[in-house]
Inverse folding.
């Protein structure tokens, strides 16, 4: 057991310095946590073709479109909206002019180096120019 005479009082300046330093080290992490809590949660988007190879890629004002090939040689269409939406269609064919067609029930997506077009029930519901590929 320590005797009172063996305990040295801590200098007030040293104690204050330790408190300020500790608080200073904690404050940035507290402000980061507070600012992170105010940010919207964003789901990471995978570019290209997850678990497949990119055969073709295109960009319009609102979408990224990928024609993908799986390990077994089948093709699929992947459309990723710049708003975070996405669609995958397994039934893909291609025309002699380089246009790819992906059909899912009553919706057909067609893409080539000039345009993306979506047709539903024989009616064009989207037509966008390709701006990059």
């Amino acid at each position: 057991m320590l005797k009172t005479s063996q305990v040295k009082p801590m200098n007030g300046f040293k104690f204050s310095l330790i408190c300020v330093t500790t608080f200073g080290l904690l404050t940035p992490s507290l402000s980061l946590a507070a600012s992170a809590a105010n940010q919207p949660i964003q789901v990471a988007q995978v570019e290209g073709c997850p678990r497949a190879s990119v055969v073709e890629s295109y960009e319009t004002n609102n979408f990224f479109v990928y024609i993908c090939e799986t390990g077994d040689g089948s093709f699929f269409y992947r459309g990723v909206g710049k708003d975070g939406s996405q669609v995958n269609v397994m039934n893909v064919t291609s025309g002699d002019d380089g246009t790819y067609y992906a059909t899912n029930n009553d919706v057909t997506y067609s893409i080539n180096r000039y345009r993306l077009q979506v047709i539903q029930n024989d009616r064009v519901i989207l037509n966008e120019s390709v701006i990059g590929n």
Summary: The first strand starts at residue 53 and ends at 59. Residues 53 and 69 are 5 Å apart (CA to CA).
